[in-house]
Design brief:
By secondary structure, the chain is of the alpha/beta class. It has a 7-stranded parallel beta sheet with strand order 3-2-1-4-5-6-9, with helices on both faces. It has a two-stranded parallel ribbon with strand order 7-8. Helix 6 crosses helix 7. The longest helix has 21 residues. The radius of gyration is 17 Å and the shape is globular.
């Protein structure tokens, strides 16, 4: 299998990349990047302009795409810039993938994502999910983590503070509220890697949309590999 990781330098993306490079089912891992990554015999990386992906269409000839792209309003600096990173780029990448034979798209979205949300962040995430569903991927798997826990390369003061208290708050979120729990980025990454490893692109139905919340991400991350989905 040939897989692509978008956002391979982020908190979750870099762990997805590491997991796919170690996965025996994955022969090649493709990573479009802004700056070079470490070298690996299975890694194909290319420095690209994410605002102009069309000239890189050949890079998207893969079986599965894992998208961990995302930013914050503070880092983006404006609503337009945020939407560009969290909506325009993932959607363009998904289109290029589908046009070049990709059969599965795994998206790291966010809990509470809804195209009808009054919250701009959640609304953009939900709009992306709807646009991706309209493309008709045989497998569209949408991950809805709460606050991602882990060591980030860049400092996010608010998220850092929440990350300290979130493990304690998790106990106060039982039942249906569990989906709002903070979750280690490593758990989300392991779940995504497991799903890719279990994919059999030639046997995927037409089409299937799956939304994965806290419990399912934990189960995928911890569960043994069985037979391809």
């Amino acid at each position: 299998m040939k897989a692509m990781v978008l956002g391979a330098t982020g908190l979750t993306g870099r762990q997805v990349l590491a997991g796919l490079l170690e996965a025996p089912e994955v022969e090649t891992v493709v990573a479009p990047v802004r700056r070079p990554l470490r070298t690996h015999s299975k890694l194909v990386q290319r420095t690209v302009d994410f605002d102009h992906l069309a000239p890189e269409a050949d890079l998207f000839a893969v079986d599965a795409i894992v998208c961990c792209l995302g930013t914050t309003m503070a880092r983006a600096g404006s609503k337009a810039a945020f939407r560009r990173v969290d909506y325009d780029v993932p959607l363009e990448a998904a289109r290029l993938g589908l046009e070049n034979g990709a059969r599965a798209f795994l998206l790291m979205s966010a809990v509470g994502a809804s195209a009808q949300s009054p919250v701009f962040y959640s609304r953009v995430k939900g709009q992306l999910e709807e646009a991706l569903a309209d493309l008709g991927y045989p497998r569209l798997s949408i991950y809805h983590p709460g606050l991602l826990l882990g060591e980030r390369q860049e400092q996010r003061t608010g998220e850092s503070a929440m990350g300290t208290v979130m493990p304690m708050l998790n106990a106060l979120l039982p039942g249906p509220l569990k989906r709002y729990r903070g979750i280690p980025a490593s758990t989300v990454a392991r779940a995504m890697v497991t799903e890719v490893r279990l994919l059999s692109p030639s046997e995927l139905p037409d089409p299937q949309v799956i939304v994965r919340h806290y419990d399912e991400m934990e189960s995928l991350a911890a569960g043994p590999l069985t037979t391809p989905a």
